[in-house]
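Task 17 of the worksheet. Students: predict the tertiary structure of the chain below and write it out as structure tokens. Keep your answer in the requested format; marks are given for formatting as well as content.
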Amino acid sequence: MKQGLSLRVSQHLALTPQLQQSIRLLQLSTLELSQEVEQMLDENPFLERATEEAPREEFGLESADAPVRDDDRQGDAEAEFVAGPAAASLDSPPAAAADSETPAATEGPEGEPDWEGDGTIDLAPDDSEWGGDAPARNSGTGDERPDATELASSQESLQSFLHRQALSLRLEENDRAALRFLIESLNDDGYLEDSLPALASGLAGNDNDQFDELVHHFQVALGLLQSLEPLGVGARSLAECLTIQLRARQDEDHTEEEKQVRRTAIAVCKQPMELLAKRDFKRLATLTRSNEDEVRAALQLIARLEPKPGRRFANVERNIVIPDVIVTRIGHGTSARFRVMLNPEVMPRLRVHDIYAGALKAHKGEGSQALSQRLQEARWFIKNIQQRFDTILRVSNAIVERQKNYFVHGELAMRPLVLREIADELGLHESTISRVTTAKYMSTPYGTVELKYFFGSALGTETGGNASSTAVRALIKQFVSAEDAKKPLSDSQVSEMLKEQGIECARRTVAKYREALRIAPANLRKAL
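Model answer:
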């Protein structure tokens, strides 16, 4: 075996740290980006939030129609981001954007972009205890208006609502502590998932005397908890939750018939919930020793109850949707056009700290290399955020241009669209379009929807054209909403109705779309 040296030329792709950061920022949602900005502000001393207010008209509708010239974009970096991607109209050429997905690897000027809007979120949990002062609902002062996240975080929780009611109860210290413990043990729906012995054993350990005493206090506290508002809170099962609400309605019964219906409903709740879900009237009538008419009336009464008492206290903050892009309609009729602009409220206003950067440039000494790296990281972070919003705006413009019929006529006019079409038009990769459209939302005249909502597969029609799956789902929803409640449409009937509209859609496809729309089957939609 003979050893030797050889020279080989090859090419390979490498993800630089800057490119990795750009890709990661692109796929973050609005709330995740706010958290990322806050973390970077804490870690990097060269990065700061801009305090001076930019002129409001820079983000208003007045400047949205004016296209941005190439010579203007060569000037101030601040004007490039504020006046360029902040707003664009389908009637005017969009601002010039880089064809690549990542910013150029050149060091920017000393003055970094100053972006309007603050994407930070002020999370203010409600830690008030019994007898404590309630937190202020509005952290802003003067003319400041709280954003949606602040309003969501200021909503009262279920535990706080129950603690406030418990203040009016005259209890001994042990019973008060037991009630407080049960309130804190409730889940988001208002149910007590663990049994009382399980809760007591976790506190008492191997002490049997203390265990029995804790169980006794928990039983007393459970009765008090289930008497509080909302009705059904503290239940350990769905049947118990419904029964608590039914028993609390006894004062509303004015006739003997209403009392009998309520008694039948309580008896139905004691039976297996599967029979209630399937609406097996005959078997329920046999088990409750009632007739089918009474069981039907009882199920109508049960349908008006709340299966999740803590629903209205759910943490809205984690479900809140903040649009990244705002689409407004200008004009009416055939002359109508649509303006696409970024939401200035979600755009962080960041810049490089001028004093620190100037001090580092003037004094080159020991440790300056590490500080220079941190300065470069701050500049790259600003550029990558700028690139993120620029890409979102470009993709949104392309979507609005292709789905213009949706913005005029609604979801029934949606046309088929795949990621590849937008990627080919903008010169980007499909994965980039997928990242842009994930967890990004657009405010339209028909509500706020995710960017992925505008993409749908194509279904064949009799005329040889294609219909969007989104439009077909909207049509199915329309058919079901207009059906006879006593004779709901089956999947086969819906498929035939779609064929009458010229859309080829099999029964299995209808069933899949119906399940995606969370529409129950025909046998469950049948009127009680």
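Marker's comment: Confidence is low (pLDDT under 50) at residues 53-143. Residues 58 and 83 are 6 Å apart (CA to CA).
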